[in-house]
Amino acid sequence: MKTPKRNNRKNFSKSIVFSLVFLVLGFIMAYSYSLSNTNKESEGYTGGAFFEQEERYRKELINQQERNKALRDELQEKQSEVQEYEKSFADGENRYTEYAKEAEELRRYLGLVPVQGNGLKVTLQDGDYNPNSVNPNDYIVHESHVFQVINELYISGAEAISINGQRIHGNSYIVCTGPVITVDGVQYPAPFVIEAIGEPEVLSSSMRLSGGIMDQLVNDNIIVTLDEGLIIKMPALLTES
């Protein structure tokens, strides 16, 4: 009777051991499966997030490149505008300088400002008296002689002209009255000194041309004297207030 009891106890003990073993094995397998799934989910999540972040950076980079290109284009446009402005400003300065020079020349021509410069002095004197001459006007300086000299000097490039120190202009009138001439209402006796500001050599050469003004004056018994290389000063024209 004792032997069967012993066998029953052994079988019960084995059953408990096997049950524990299977329980442990089941727990280990379940844990391993759960851990495996967790790792897979984690790996999947990490890969997706990295891809999204990379895509976002790529889009930001493209946007920044486009923005930089737009800024470069805008900068180039502004630089072109600045260059155009500088060019127009320089042109404006050049035009202003030209206008100022023209205005100064016009004032000089109109006699509104005093002038000074190199030039030529032409002196006209009555010829020596000839008792055999029937007409005394044959040896007197007339306004036509003065006009001849003035016109020749202007043609030769004279910038300003005066007679006996009085500045003349485009509307000046000269009248001969016996031994004197009247310039814009002011009388002057002989000799008549005509001064011109300009290139002295050019003015003198023009006066001395063969068959020119000087020869004509000498033929009319007028004494002509030329003085070159002088510094000539002329006042401004007298204007009515």
Index terms:
241 residues, alpha+beta, Alpha-Beta Plaits, 2 domains, five-stranded antiparallel sheet, three-stranded antiparallel sheet
Span from first to last CA? 166 Å
Task: Using the alpha-carbon principal axes, give the shape.
Answer: rod-shaped
Kindly identify the CATH topology of the largest domain. Answer: Alpha-Beta Plaits
CATH-level-2 architecture of the largest domain: 2-Layer Sandwich
Assigned CATH superfamily of the largest domain: Protein of unknown function DUF881
Mean pLDDT: 77
CATH class of the largest domain, named Alpha Beta
Q: Give the number of helices.
A: 4
Note poorly predicted spans. Answer: none
Instruction: Give the amount of beta strand, in percent.
Output: 15-25%
**What kind of sheet is the major sheet?**
5 strands, antiparallel
Structural class: alpha+beta
Portion of residues in helices? 55-70%
The arrangement of helices and strands along the chain is HEHEEEEEEHHE
Please, how many domains? 2
Strand order of the largest sheet: 3-2-7-1-8
Instruction: Evaluate the radius of gyration.
Output: 58 Å
**What is the number of E strands?**
8
Describe this structure as you would to a colleague.
It is a single chain. By secondary structure, this protein is an alpha+beta fold. It folds into 2 domains: 1-113; 114-234, Alpha-Beta Plaits. Helices cover 57% and strands 20% of the residues. The chain is built from 4 helices and 8 strands, in the order αβαββββββααβ. The protein has helices at residues 2-110, 143-155, 200-207, 213-219, and strands spanning 115-125, 160-163, 166-167, 174-177, 180-183, 186-189, 192-197, 223-234. Strand 4 and strand 5 (180-183) form a beta hairpin. The protein is rod-shaped and about 180 Å long. InterPro entries: DUF881.
